[in-house]
Specification:
By secondary structure, the chain is mainly α. 36% of the residues lie in helices and 6% in strands.
Amino acid sequence: METLQTIAAGYGGRLDVVDLGRRRRFSDDFKLAVVAESYATGAVITQLARRYGVHPSQIYVWRAQARGDGGGVGRISEPPAFVPLVATGDHGGLCEPSSAPVSAPLVIVLSGTRRVEVHPGFDAATLAALVTTLEGLA
């Protein structure tokens, strides 16, 4: 009779035992922790899947569930939205303004189908009045 050692020796010493007899259940906390780790800078899904013993596609399913488009855990109750931008003029020393000339227009998308392209040198006060007027027409 062959033993596990003699069988493993025939496969170069490597033998993986896989339990296929039951369906595994993961807690919501575990799923959310794996999803959060999958969004970390430099995270590789296949490495995460191997570390946690799941198939890479399972992590993508959990991501979809967390976003709310796949049902299940961690559903985000609000749809994605833009947040207001507040320009204070103070950059807090994090970056210095560029001295390079800007040639591309700034595109401002307003409600509905309106959008405004602002080219360098356009007066800020006039732009503010224009945007306020266009938003009032919505």
